[in-house]
Amino acid sequence: xxxxxxxxxxxxxxxxxxxxxxxxxxxxxxxxxxxxxxxxxxxxxxxxxxxxxxxxxxxxxxxxxxxxxxxxxxxxxxxxxxxxxxxxxxxxxxxxxxxxxxxxxxxxxxxxxxxxxxxxxxxxxxxxxxxxxxxxxxxxxxxxxxxxxxxxxxxxxxxxxxxxxxxxxxxxxxxxxxxxxxxxxxxxxxxxxxxxxxxxxxxxxxxxxxxxxxxxxxxxxxxxxxxxxxxxxxxxxxxxxxxxxxxxxxxxxxxxxxxxxxxxxxxxxxxxxxxxxxxxxxxxxxxxxxxxxxxxxxxxxxxxxxxxxxxxxxxxxxxxx
Length: 321
What we know:
Layout: H1 12-18, E1 26-30, E2 34-36, E3 39-41, E4 49-50, E5 56-58, E6 64-67, E7 73-76, E8 81-87, E9 92-105, E10 109-113, E11 116-119, E12 128-134, E13 142-149, E14 152-156, E15 159-163, E16 168-174, E17 177-185, E18 193-198, E19 203-208, E20 213-219, E21 224-229, E22 239-244, E23 249-255, E24 259-264, E25 270-273, H2 290-293, E26 313-315
Parallel strand pairs: 9-10
Antiparallel strand pairs: 1-4, 1-6, 2-3, 2-5, 5-8, 6-7, 7-9, 8-9, 9-12, 10-11, 11-14, 12-13, 13-16, 14-15, 15-18, 16-17, 17-20, 18-19, 19-22, 20-21, 21-24, 22-23, 24-25, 25-26
């Protein structure tokens, strides 16, 4: 399955197939005592504890297994906290407030954190195993997502982030700015992470290589989108951008470390600016890891063919790559 070309919305067939089904998340096992809504509970083998929307489970020193009616499971590691979100008529859902959770999911269950909800592509032949980690200090804004097996989408407002097997990304968001997503792809990724954003005229598609930090944020109200590649990204990594506005993909551009692009949300036109990026948004929410600190930095981007005379910016609207 190609995540790059997968539609952002659930298929009609999936919606019809799931509509009317009843889903119920339960605690099916725990290695020791846990707390549910602040009260100590011991799970007896063979007697799962049914949860309702809003129930909060704290693992404490135990590990906890949640099971949906579909048979999908999510394991909450020690010291983790999760909240049952109930059934929206299509899928049961579990929200990871903090800690580590590992979900083995089909399209009938969604597992998420503040920066987005994980879903499995409709029609997937096998379940996907997804790892989520939410640091306690940033539980309202940051999470690490990794696919141990299979493929998955992380959905957040108008964004979808596509992960193929054994790919990972750390996402940062701000609940006061739903149009802003920052990301850091991991050093071990072998391929790219797909970031899609739905805008007025169509879709902006970014392919983000390994060891790359960037942000997508609104500009000029919601008339434009700014996509940045941080100066500290892997020196040879370039974010590839295309726009799909109903007439096929076009306006391709590439962003090297220390550059950014402004995309017109109505036309899809892309302008790349050759200026080092100073990431002051979110108080540098996308913190750099030790592996990033040792990478050589560079400052250039490619878009279209080079024009005589150079210049401070280039518009890729000429489609002459």
